[in-house]
Write a structure and sequence with these properties.
The chain is built from three helices and six strands. The chain is α+β, with helices and mostly antiparallel strands. Strands 1-2-4-5-6-3 form a six-stranded antiparallel sheet, covered by helices on one side. β5 and β6 form a beta hairpin. The protein starts with a helix and ends in a 5-residue tail after the last strand.
Length: about 140
């Protein structure tokens, strides 16, 4: 594994928020990350489906690992999400983040969130901004 990708794994190891939600980092390479999370009982809201904030957090985590995969620390400059389908208790969600553009210190990433049968759940777009220092 390259040093940059080892740094992404180290970033995940320090990410108590993603770990508390049961996320798993499945894959990471330059400009790409894939993260999985199973929907638990404590993620269900008043309509008896998964709270959208958890779906957003999964996509945001995949985005974070993808935009930090080049060896430079990067933070979100903005992001949005489009929800397509409800998520049920026990569903296994996968967020796959792909870099669309990287110009100077700015990047654009698209994240597709799917369920255990590959059905689309949400699409997320994130804009990143690199900080000056290396990871």
């Amino acid at each position: 594994m390259s040093e940059r990708l080892a740094q992404v794994e180290a970033m995940f190891d320090r990410d108590r928020a993603s770990q508390a939600m049961g996320m798993e980092l499945l894959d990471a390479r330059p400009g790409y990350a894939r993260v999985r999370m199973r929907v638990r009982d404590d993620m269900i809201q008043g309509h008896n489906t998964c709270h959208g904030g958890f779906v957003f957090a999964l996509a945001d985590s995949a985005f974070a690992f993808a935009c930090n995969s080049h060896g430079y620390p990067a933070v979100a400059a903005g992001c949005s999400i489009e929800y397509l389908a409800p998520v049920e208790l026990g569903d296994e969600l996968t967020a796959e983040a792909r870099e669309q553009a990287l110009a100077g210190r700015s990047g654009v990433y698209d994240v597709a969130v799917t369920n255990q049968v590959g059905a689309p759940i949400a699409f997320f777009r994130g804009r990143s901004r690199r900080l000056d220092a290396r990871l």
